[in-house]
Amino acid sequence: MPLTVWVAGSVAFVATVVLIGGLWFDRLFEAPSAGRASSLVHHLGSRSVLAVFDHPDDETLAAGALAEAAKREGIEVRTITLTRGERGYAEPHISRREDLRVVRESELRRFGFALGIDHQEIWDYPDGELVNTSGVELVERLVERIRTWRPDLVLTFDPAGGYNGHPDHKVAGAVASDAVRAGLDPDYRPELGEPHRPQHLVYVLAPARALRTIGGSALRVVAQVQPDANLAIRVRPEPRILGWRTHASQHLDRAYPLPGWLLFDFWDKEHYRVLDPGVRPRR
Question: Which residues, 6 or more positions from 7, have their beta carbon under 8 angstroms from its beta carbon?
């Protein structure tokens, strides 16, 4: 066999393997049960958004939808972050451990500004200890914000899976969900303001296929317990890549199998579960 034919055949074989592998990897980030849209707020008709997370950098998991919402005329986007993330990574060339809470707050505020978020609140509950924090207090504070700001859409984590199984993520999702439901009840703490019913409660979800296929045992559990996505938003990679770079203290690329510039070519959608605020979710 002539060398040129052998080389051409080898190149064709490698190209075929790469193509098939790429298509297989791309499918890991699809949600067959989900409808498709290009904008979360446009699809749901929302004019104001409140996102409730627990750590600086959690907003990167919904960066595409938040950035798209913030750039739209007349859309108000607010975030509440329950902790300052002082128990995250602390690399010596980024910060001292005792300065990490300040560094992470700075990263969060910088990224929020870059996304175009109108208002950011960072509360001061202890990182990693939300399971030991009074859920009653958290719900009351969130109800006051919801009744004051009156968002159309409240975005948070799924309380069952917490996106990646993190206990703080589950607490954030649970208290935000409870606050949405309590906030629409006229008998709940009327001194906190007039009842308000958001149009939608939305959970940001991890790509379940990827968790089942390439995740560890803990992530496979998340895929089992989180609700099925019913909406997938196609997003640009730039906001999420910027989030990874801005949250430099956390080296987010270490948590994933590929660098962001390549990963987000495949992972080009954010998955969501859209709920009626007055109804508890089912799988």
Answer: none
Domain that holds residue 60: 31-275
Alpha helix segments (H runs only) across the chain = 3-27, 40-44, 63-71, 100-115, 135-149, 162-165, 167-183, 208-214, 217-225, 237-246, 260-266
pLDDT digit string, tens, across residues 69-119: 999 999 999 999 999 999 887 665 677 888 899 999 999 999 999 999 999
pLDDT, tens digit, for every residue of 194-224? Answer: 999 999 999 999 999 999 999 889 999 999 9
Is 26 inside a domain boundary?
no
The set of residues, in sequence order, having a beta carbon less than 8 Å from that of 38 and lying 6+ positions away, is 68, 233, 234
Residue 282, domain member (yes or no): no
Report field, pTM of the whole predicted structure over 0.90: yes
Decide if 137 is inside a domain.
yes
CATH assignment of the domain containing 113: 3.40.50.10320
Farthest CA pair distance, the chain? 86
Going by pLDDT thresholds of 50, 70 and 90, the confidence category of residue 19 is low
Domain assignment of residue 227, yes or no: yes
Convert 82-93 to b/e letters by CB count within 10 Å (16 or more is b): bbbbbbbbbeee
Q: 């770079």: which residue's tokens?
A: 245
Question: Cβ contacts of residue 106 below 8 Å, gap of 6+?
Answer: none
